[in-house]
Design goal:
By secondary structure, the chain is of the alpha+beta class. It is 26% helix and 28% strand. The protein is globular, with a radius of gyration of 19 Å.
């Protein structure tokens, strides 16, 4: 399935109140969400047939929509139910779920107060976000020329479609330059996150973990989960502003995200890191938790 274009796949997609055939889940070319990025979404992992932290994802989706000035016409419990239904119909044991809500096509301009809010959920089988062989030795990150905007310029704490355009540009440039992903800085030049994952650093003694303060980028659900795991392992987690030049003082680095899970990093620009045992331990504990 991995090489089949997403519009050519088979099965069912939940769309505006009912399950429809995969290839019939369509929208008009003059949909506001396409032209003005007025859409919010989630990315959720399925492990052994269950969606990890489903309700937290559904709550964030509803919150993201409210920050974008619209209301999804379903409750959090409804969204949970529909997501489970799609996973069951698609017979997904281990995969990915994508709920998305967007403004429709009644109005086609910047103003869109009267547009219908549409909602869809798709699910598919999906493995590792990064090549497992590459992950074994740590992925390599370029340093993006694009910076995360100031928090008073975008709805930074949402999974909104428009927020991700600079991430796509950054990842494309990184891949063109031979890297696996890109590290993005915030509007002040501090370390922020990768293009689809939060970042952590480990001190040389492997007793402390450092991560940027999530004040201009999404505080990921996996990020929060891994912080709790680290604390249970008696490892101190410190959230702070981190300058690029400080990276030489860290021994290890890893990313977290629903897609990335726990992924070690071996390089950010000219800075190198080791794939430490602590990263493996955090990954093992995370994998154990998601499969409970």
């Amino acid at each position: 399935m991995e090489n089949i274009p997403y519009d050519k796949r088979t099965g069912k997609i939940w769309l505006d109140g009912k399950l429809v055939d995969w290839q019939d889940a369509k929208l008009h070319v003059l949909t506001h969400g396409l032209h003005y990025a007025s859409a919010v979404f989630e990315g959720e992992r399925v492990y052994n047939g269950k969606i990890f932290k489903l309700t937290e994802h559904s709550e964030r989706l509803v919150y993201s929509a409210s920050r974008m000035g619209f209301k999804i016409p379903y409750s959090v419990s409804d969204i949970d139910k529909f997501c489970k239904e799609v996973v069951e119909v698609q017979k997904i044991e281990n995969g990915y779920v994508r709920p998305i809500a967007w403004r429709g096509s009644e109005m086609m301009a910047v103003s869109a107060q009267n547009n219908t809010i549409h909602f869809a959920i798709a699910a598919w089988v999906w493995g590792s976000y990064f090549d497992p062989k590459i992950k074994l030795h740590g992925i390599k990150l370029d340093i993006s020329k694009w910076r995360k905007p100031a928090p008073d310029s975008i709805p930074w704490d949402t999974k909104a479609a428009g927020n991700y355009m600079i991430n796509t540009l950054s990842k494309h440039e990184a891949e063109k330059n031979g890297y696996n992903d890109s590290m993005m800085l915030d509007y002040q030049g501090n370390i922020a996150e990768a293009t689809g994952a939060n970042v952590f650093f480990i001190n040389k003694e492997q007793t402390e973990i450092y991560t940027p303060i999530a004040d201009s980028f999404l505080n990921g659900i996996t990020r929060r989960t891994v912080i709790e795991i680290a604390k249970q392992l008696q490892v101190k987690v410190i959230e702070k502003k981190i300058k690029l030049e400080e990276l030489s003082g860290y021994k290890g680095c890893f990313l977290t995200g629903s897609a990335a899970e726990v992924t070690p990093v071996s390089q950010i620009g000219n800075y190198s890191f080791e794939v430490l045992d602590l990263i493996g331990k955090l990954s093992d504990e995370y994998q154990s938790l998601v499969r409970k």
